[in-house]
Amino acid sequence: IPDKIIVRREATRITQEMIEEIFKKFVLENSPWKQEDINIHRVRFSGIPLIPTGKMTYEVAASSGRERFIGNVTATVDFYVNEEKVRTLGIVGKVEVFGNVYLASRPMKQNEMVSQADLEVHKMNLTEAADRFATRLDQVENRRVLRNLGVHQPLELKDLDKPLVLKRGDQVKIVYEEPGLSVIANGQADADGGVGDTLAVTNVSSKKTVHCKVVDARTVTATR
């Protein structure tokens, strides 16, 4: 019997290009973004793996169940040879997302309403600010700006709000509602507000301040 038995098994090297292709395919197939708006680069991993020669397959999973596929994206690849798992590899890649962003086509003042004529569209890198800017027309049209904006300035969602239907000093009808009872009184708005806002209203008769929810430009309902 020989002192030592050496078993040699042929191995296959997984190339950098193959790993990058696996990662890119995974991102493009699972990302919520349009494929034409995605740029994937700086794909990194530790070492060029060797696996036994045979029928190779693989499975890829995001490292986080809440992966948004934007910015630094991490994934895990399990390699199988002849249906037996032989290697697990962690991969990190930079996923840039570009999209159309609405910009002001002219200087706008606080509380001005936005119309299509006030807008222009430019494609921007949204990687670090995917939820920051207005990217859909319904997010900007018929909204009011909360601060002064310069020409060509991107519209941020935090700077847009629903239109004001009431201004401080406007006369309104206060509706008091209880089960089986509805009473209407004259009131005066103590602040600006849009539909759905809660604001202080003074009852003209009693001079009492009531917190009310704005229904429309003429009506508010007293809140409990």
Describe this protein's structure.
With 224 residues, this protein is mainly beta. The chain folds into three domains: 11-96, no CATH class; 98-161, Type Iii Antifreeze Protein Isoform Hplc 12 (Alpha-Beta Complex); 171-222, SH3 type barrels, CATH 2.30.30.760. It is built from one helix and 14 strands; from the N terminus they run E-H-E-E-E-E-E-E-E-E-E-E-E-E-E. Strands 2, 4, 5, 6 and 7 form a five-stranded antiparallel β-sheet that branches. It has a five-stranded mixed barrel with strand order 10-11-12-13-14. Strands 1-3 form a two-stranded antiparallel ribbon. A hairpin with a 2-residue loop joins strand 10 (171-178) and strand 11. The longest helix has 15 residues, at 16-30. The termini are far apart.
| DSSP summary, beta strand count | 14
Report the β-strand fraction as a percent range.
35-45%
How many H/I helices? Answer: 1
| Mean pLDDT, all residues | 92
Which percent range fits the helix content? Answer: under 10%
Largest sheet: 5 strands, antiparallel
Radius of gyration: 30 Å
* Element-by-element helix/strand order: EHEEEEEEEEEEEEE
Low-confidence stretches: none
Distance between the termini: 94 Å
Sum up the overall morphology in one term: elongated
Count of domains: 3
Structural class: mainly beta
